[in-house]
Amino acid sequence: MASEQGPALKIGDRIEVTIEKVAHGGHFIARHNGAVIFVRHAIEGEACTIELTSVGASFSRADAISIHTPSEFRVNPSCSFSHSKGCGGCDFQHISEIHQRTLKSQVISEQFARITKMDLTVEVEKVGESSKWRTRAIATTNQDGKLGFYKSRSHTVVPVTDCNICVDALGIHELSQKSLKPDYRVEISASNTGERSIALASVIGQQRARLTEGPAKLHEKVLDKTLEVSHESFWQSHKNAPEVLTKAVLEFASFKPGDHVLDLYGGVGLFTAAILDIVGASGRVDLIEGSKFATSDATKNFSSHANVKVITGDVAQHLPRISSADIVVLDPPREGAGKEVIAQIARLRPRSIIYVACDPAALARDTTYLAQHSFSLVKIRAFDLFPMTHHIECVALYAQTDVS
């Protein structure tokens, strides 16, 4: 017999619910008369009043606006702009730091259970303080030229006077006091060597941001190497991420002198820089990256290394031209590598595959593809490189299960 359905939900409706488990994406699940609702600013177990912000056929979205039974893990947000009508950048400011990592661990486990049917438990490791960690930020000015960030799932800019997850070197407070061009995207980057760059672009259209302040290339020191990073090139946003991820890759990979390594989606060469010391002059690294800005940086970074080949282009198109590799390292964008790329990696029969992932759902999906090619998950680590948000970074090691 079909479950009873109440009156159709509408945007703006306020209803009372009890919050269920965390879901992937920075929200929690609630149900009302058979309808599934994804709720922000809540915590599992809380009884609260929520306000519907969008209504769909399969699920709706809402914000918690009144908490009747607060969770033991609820805290006062350290940021005054973190609330249902405020900045949409942080999902978990209202949750204790330790419980944030517990929730992220649950999300990883749930994604692997749902997608791969694996029973997986992984601790999300703390890598630094929950404030003053972000070294890259994209802010936006409103119609009055005030600096701010978008509300969640909105193009409405919330003006701010500071951002407590951004490093002081980004100068958010300083910029918020200025009268800036209205309706502009403001891209700000700060290096760990003391440089800052700012680039601007209109929010209308697809304009490339134009550098207005600072050097065109920043210099980032990781372990004992210094890399050039253009403003347009990707770089990990957490100040500790480059070193943390590099060490995890080195730990998992067991590189050897003479190894041929593929560094896929290799950016400016973060991992290549560390790998070279181990594989030595008798080894070599092929770095493949789609961004011409990043490969330009990589070419400069490894200009004195004849055993590094930098390739600009789509990973899926270039992999078929490679016949073998001892180890493959990949750090794809959020959507993951995908079925075609995984098949090409598996064809090479590398000794090991080290996968750096910023989305546990994509990682779980690609784990199933690897299993279809006889590569199994050996180890996984997870790092809280995005405190106060729902994002998680994982590093996973895969090895062949059938070497016949």
Layout: helices, strands, pairs:
Blueprint (H helix, E strand, L loop, with lengths): L13 E5 L3 E2 L3 E6 L2 E6 L6 E9 L4 E10 L27 H19 L8 E2 L10 E6 L5 E4 L6 E3 L12 H5 L7 E7 L5 E7 L7 E4 L3 E6 L2 E6 L10 H13 L6 E5 L5 H10 L4 E6 L2 H10 L6 E5 L2 H4 L8 E4 L8 H9 L4 E6 L2 H13 L2 E9 L9 E8 L4
Parallel strand pairs: 4-6, 7-21, 16-17, 16-19, 17-18, 19-20
Antiparallel strand pairs: 1-5, 2-3, 3-4, 5-6, 8-9, 8-11, 9-10, 11-12, 12-13, 14-15, 20-22, 21-22
Helix pairs in contact: 1-8, 3-4
Structural descriptors:
alpha/beta; OB fold (Dihydrolipoamide Acetyltransferase, E2P); Rossmann fold; 6-stranded mixed β-sheet; 8 helices; 22 strands; globular
Short synopsis of the structure:
The protein is α/β, with parallel strands linked by helices. The chain has helices at residues 97-115, 172-176, 241-253, 270-279, 292-301, 315-318, 339-347, 360-372, and strands at residues 14-18, 22-23, 27-32, 35-40, 47-55, 60-69, 124-125, 136-141, 147-150, 157-159, 184-190, 196-202, 210-213, 217-222, 225-230, 260-264, 284-289, 308-312, 327-330, 352-357, 375-383, 393-400. It folds into 3 domains: 1-74, Nucleic acid-binding proteins (OB fold (Dihydrolipoamide Acetyltransferase, E2P)); 102-128 and 234-400, 3-Layer(aba) Sandwich (Rossmann fold), CATH 3.40.50.150; 136-217, no CATH class.
pLDDT < 50 runs, ≥5 residues: none
For the record, the count of structural domains works out to: 3
Summed over residues and divided by their number, the pLDDT gives a mean of 96
Oligomer: single chain
H/E element string? EEEEEEHEEEEHEEEEEHEHEHEHEHEHEE
Number of helices: 8
